């Protein structure tokens, strides 16, 4: 099976503790035709933001039709052709943006004798009790204190901005990032790690990120039952390009 790694980097060019002001502000989403990025575009448009969204081909209906059909897209969505592999193609895109959500990632499929690129199984019934994911572990260098990178499994119920219930386990790299500015009631430390290590995390929210949510054992949302590794702990075995590959398997079970 051919596998690829993917991470999302969210870049806040101004004060990371400054909340977005909503309608009228310009934000950028790269790789907007991707699954998570398209949800993010929808989320931002519903809240009145003007969105500059990049795709590889603005004339490809398969890539842009869904985005153009979103509420508010006609008035506030600007699709821009950009390729992550072309140096400088994003420079003009991010200019003037209050926030950049960088979700673009190149995908290479050069595996030989591969059996499947992706597998999808569908089982009958309407009750599901868990999910499992295997995630390649990297240590992308985060240079600014207002940046982070992560790779995660995202389990959602409800709708964004209303009654979203989310569980998000995976790994993340943060550098002095004040994560909880948007969660004023969360009883957590505002500075998580202060280093560039790759760390295990699980995030949850039950009210669409409004007032409830936490990343690790600093809040009451988690109870430690296994002493082998703790949420927030560093992951020491890391994949390297054209070298050894390491992964973690994460299971969420009800």
Give the DSSP E fraction (strand runs of 2 or more residues). Answer: 25-35%
Order of helices and strands: EEHEHHEHEEEEEEE
Q: How far do the termini sit from each other?
A: 29 Å
How many discrete structural domains?
Answer: 2
- Count of extended strands: 11
Q: Tell me the structural class.
A: alpha/beta
Largest sheet: 9 strands, mixed
Shape: globular
List the uncertain runs: 1-19, 177-190
Helix proportion of residues, in percent? 10-25%
What's the Cα radius of gyration? 19 Å
Overall pLDDT confidence: 74
Count the helices. How many?
Answer: 4
Description:
The chain is of the alpha/beta class and about 250 residues long. It has two domains: about 10-100, NAD(P)-binding Rossmann-like Domain (Rossmann fold), CATH 3.40.50; about 130-254, no CATH class. About 10% of the residues lie in helices and about 25% in strands. The strands form two sheets. Strands 1, 2, 3, 4, 5, 7, 8, 9 and 10 form a nine-stranded mixed β-sheet that branches. It starts with 7 loop residues before the first strand and ends with a strand. Residues about 1-20 and about 175-190 have low confidence and may be disordered.
